[in-house]
Amino acid sequence: MRIAGIELRWVRLPLVTPFRTSRYTEEWKYALLIRVRTEEGAIGWGECVAMRVDVYSPETIDDAARALRETLIPMVLELPDVTAEKAKEALAQVEGHPMAKAALEMALLDAQLRLIGRSLAAHLGAVRPAVKAGVSVGIMSEKELIDTVLRYRFEEHYQRIKLKIEPGWDVEPVHLVRELLGADALLQVDGNGAYRLEDAGHLAELDRYDLLMIEQPLAADDLDGHAALARKLKTPICLDEPITCTADAIRAIDRGAAAIINIKPGRVGGYLEAKEIHRVCAARGVPVWVGGMVETGLGRAANVALAALPHFTIVGDLSASERFFTQDITPPIVVGTDGLIRVPDKPGIGVEPDMTVLARPEITDHVEQIPIPAQVLAVGRAR
User: Fold this and answer.
1) For this structure, is 346 an active site residue?
2) What pLDDT, in 10s, does the model give residues 94-108?
3) Of the listed 162, 264, 275, 346, which one is catalytic?
4) Do 179 and 200 sit in the same domain of this protein?
5) Residue 347 lies in a domain
């Protein structure tokens, strides 16, 4: 492909309800979208999952936009023939900025696959036409928790529930939800790094609730602590934030710090790297699942495609658009009464934004056109 135009678009969507974890509370979803237009006439969309502040990752939306504008996009424009695979190889020279890289790669993948009429799911190697839906439940009052969990499980058909926990809000809510849902329900918890190794005795109390996993109980940089904690608990330990590339996954597994890996495409630098981590974990017999970052329908659809790969054997954070938004920017992602989300099978990501929705001033904050050097356009015209 040859790139004819690139646009950055800042959007914001109010959340249906505030989403609280042990580290932060979100009331709005802020996203940076990338729109790529090629000389061949294809349009590709990408979504950057970086947050406004550095509570989950050091990379913020402003950091990502700066990296895209000043470094990553210019590097891609220098390529004689652009593909997502060639862009990934070129951008590997730049340290950091995984969420910016992932968003650009996503837009390039969307464009190149639309050109050849192939879906992202097929390109990645998906083997399932639908994936099981899972939902993440934030920290809230006991009454809210009861109402929310019962609605998600029995009215909205989610097949797996994840509870956010923190010191002082862990054993009691898990006990309550296990009683509500029964012994066979798929249930897991996420500490978002709120605990210390000294809390091992307390966390061991969760072993009696037959949880799928405890996700990220300790700080992201504490692999040795996670390995030590894993030896003290029966419940498997899953890592999230420390896994930023394939090498991180191998290191965590080899050190005994992770029995399960959460793969978030934005965190690892894109869907191509996510697929490689999936391959490595499959070879080592370590289960994986797709994590979420409160994506709009763009990122949500792409995550569903990824989750249809063969070794994603654990239900991921794959939920309907209505879980977070009254108005998504794409046609809504829905959970069927069978608890499944259909994998998009149209070319590219399989969905695209509704431009009438994006045109609303309360949704789009700002649009920036990235200049394309004259020599790049000249080469495109010559071809």
Assistant:
1) no
2) 999 999 999 999 999
3) 264
4) yes
5) no
